[in-house]
Amino acid sequence: MPADNTQLPRLGREAIAKLVANDIPDGAFVNLGIGLPVLVAKHLPKDREIILHSENGILGMGPLDPSQAADPDLINAGKQPISLLTGSSISDSVLSFTMMRGGHLDLSVLGGLEVSASGDLANWHTGAPDAIPGVGGAMDLAIGAKRAFVMMEHQTRDGRPKVVESCTLPLTGAGVVDRIYTDLAIIDVETDGLWVRAMVEGLSLAQLQERTGAALKCDPECRTLYLGEV
Amino acid sequence: MLDKTVHTLAEAVREIPDGATVLVGGFGGSGAPIALLEALLEQGAKDLVVVSNNAGSGTEGLNALIGAGRVRKLICSYPKSADKSQPLAAAFEQLYRAGKVELECIPQGTMVERMRAAGAGLGPFFSPTGYGTLLAEGKESRVIDGIGYVLEQPIRADYALVKADLGDRWGNLTYRLAGRNFAPVMCTAARHAIAQVREIVPLGSIPPEQVMTPAIFVQKVVCHAS
């Protein structure tokens, strides 16, 4: 039975993005995937130089100032207009995927449909029989970066867990996820299991476990995420 | 004298036969050779196998070619719209659901590297991308030094259609911003690469170190100032 979620405190999408942004170190080369991860860009700490990569060959992209005209040849992976930062470069798809698949990116932040206890990620296919398959660069990003973070709601809209023992949806990559950020918690995928590093205020480990499809271990120094502070 | 320039778009695509494998540049609309695709539609070649990252934007270009039933098979990483409010790839979706066009969905980096292998004279290669997934089914998988790999075949093509910025009569090309994307590798993987360029410039006016696709990879250049 799905747990009753009506009274549960939850982080909003922007708050999850802010948590991820705060965990990205100065000087990191990062790819933000389509969907929830795109929100991370606007929360990057101003005092850090974080270089964003886009699979269509851009290294060092920034937001488009509302006063600037959009250029059809300056778009991100989601085909949204962007700008170039000072120091940016443009390369072709071979070099761009060499950055991704070759382990040169420090971090990729991906959206997720399911993550398993062993770090398998499913995020490209809903499993619907009539879905048109479309993977884009997701599989290259999932396996290639030095670290992979996943951002997603902790449960599906109908209350099923998205952190599971093993994925039921088609995989994007096996054993690729390092850390999961949800609206309820931050969970690290370690070789000895899933470790809860932080939980939203007012939530008990039992309540979190009830909403998770795999066994959780709680870090003795587990942080509290206060809704008003993130 | 070496002169690869042709005067019209029609002349540029005239010889593409039915059944040809055609690489089509562009990431979404950026770098998409719309004018060449319109000329190909007009030319009438059918049963085409098209390799492209997307299945066409808007109503023109690849979307129109697919809509006219000219494409037998699409090899593609993302044949749908990331933005549900925009009806991209509409023709593909309709024909795919009706079983009238075949799809080979492959990871974007694998698509790129399969073309690179062909252009660089390599055979099949092992890639870690897609190992253990649906997209590895039917392909040989192997674990080497603890890492799982999928055996991928080169994509060799008859033609490539690309959009470039500057071109000269030898076939040297430059690209504008991120419009470059798949074009350079596609020119290497096709026997005949055809470039629509914004401007044809005199030989020597592109500084040698700024040539992005060297002349040897390009067979035809046509001006389409858009």
From TrEMBL, chain A:
InterPro entries, A to Z: 3-oxoacid_CoA-transf_B, CoA_trans_fam_I, CoA_transf_AS, NagB/RpiA_transferase-like
Lipoprotein recorded as keyword: no
Signal peptide bounds: none
Enzyme Commission designation: 2.8.3.6
Annotated keywords: Transferase
Gene Ontology MF term list: 3-oxoadipate CoA-transferase activity
EC class of the enzyme, as a word: transferase
Family: Belongs to the 3-oxoacid CoA-transferase subunit B family.
Name used for this protein in its record: 3-oxoadipate CoA-transferase beta subunit
TrEMBL record, chain B:
UniProt KW keywords: Transferase
Molecular function terms from GO: 3-oxoadipate CoA-transferase activity
This protein's record includes keyword Repeat: no
InterPro entries reported for this sequence: 3-oxoacid_CoA-transf_A, CoA_trans_fam_I, CoA_transf_BS, NagB/RpiA_transferase-like
Protein origin, superkingdom: Bacteria
SMART domains named in the record: CoA_trans
E.C. designation(s): 2.8.3.6
Similarity annotation: Belongs to the 3-oxoacid CoA-transferase subunit A family.
Name of the protein this chain belongs to: 3-oxoadipate CoA-transferase alpha subunit
Lineage: Bacteria, Pseudomonadati, Pseudomonadota, Betaproteobacteria, Burkholderiales
